[in-house]
């Protein structure tokens, strides 16, 4: 079992480290374009194996996709992160070309790989990778919902002073400020969250979640990596261990939720075949309106991508 992570930056290195520590593969290959960066980070990581007690061999390469050949899962994190004052959508001009080129290289050497996109703007970069890879949509999808729900769950755990392990939640829509946390599908050890928290406090947590990425960008001058890297690794785990986990994943819709030809965050079953099922939960009118609004925001960025004409 070989897993590749493209991008040896903050998110890619964190993701590779989580994959190695969980021993999800015999070998993890990290690829970057910066000479020496992936080799250095992989070597440093590998030197934690005797301390953290794992066998997964971590190797770094510079632009050498032959070394990634036969990967079963590939996580693509390459691309610019945003800086304070930017939106994720502002990254499209640089990241679309990077994601396209990287996907072509990945597919050339690992035609059967399941591809998880992390680069932003997430929903549209996943669409770009899907069009480039020309693979079935159960094998090309994006990571955002696992991260966004983790933020929502962490904020709730803090407010309620309970274990984050006991917070179950669903969040749908695009990976932007229009994302849709769903209180009606949020429970604390089976108890509806609305029984445990005042409405204004819950609304404040929902707002904080929607802007959770931006909060970290403002604090650090670049975007987050610990939770994003761990979230992508959790998706890899569900696939390689065939766990059939239900996660919100950026998936191609084919009529579900009344939408087509758009990648959007929806709950799916994740197992060895990638997305094994898109789950259609019942949404009330207000929730459906919010989801449609989020889809409209994603569509406007898809139009920018189409206008760039880099995929034809
Ligand atoms: N989907 C999500 O929830 C999240 C997405 N992100 C996104 O992930 C991406 C990476 O973020 P960071 O790791 O913080 O950035 P970073 O700047 O630390 O790392 C990006 C790496 O990509 C490499 N790279 C650029 N072009 C490449 C190419 N053609 N081939 C291989 N490597 C290439 C760079 O050399 C750099 O090392 C950004 O676009 C960011 O917005 C970040 C956090 C969460
Ligand atoms: O906020 C960003 O630019 C990075 C990201 O997607 C996140 O942390 O949610």
UniProtKB/TrEMBL annotation:
Q: Residue limits of the Lactate/malate dehydrogenase N-terminal domain?
A: 1-142
InterPro entries (alphabetical): L-lactate/malate_DH, Lactate/malate_DH_C, Lactate/malate_DH_N, Lactate_DH/Glyco_Ohase_4_C, Malate_DH_type3, NAD(P)-bd_dom_sf
Q: Which UniProt keywords apply?
A: NAD, Oxidoreductase, Tricarboxylic acid cycle
The residues responsible for catalysis, as annotated, are 175
Domain Lactate/malate dehydrogenase C-terminal stretches: 147-303
Asked if the record carries the keyword Oxidoreductase, the reply is: yes
As recorded in UniProt, its EC number(s) are 1.1.1.37
Residues recorded as binding substrate, renumbered to this chain, are 82, 88, 120, 151
Instruction: Give the top-level enzyme category.
Output: oxidoreductase
Family statement: Belongs to the LDH/MDH superfamily. MDH type 3 family.
Q: What functional role does this protein have?
A: Catalyzes the reversible oxidation of malate to oxaloacetate.
PANTHER family assigned: L-2-HYDROXYCARBOXYLATE DEHYDROGENASE (NAD(P)(+)) (PTHR43128), L-LACTATE DEHYDROGENASE (PTHR43128:SF16)
**Protein name in UniProt:** Malate dehydrogenase
- Organism of derivation: Labilibaculum filiforme
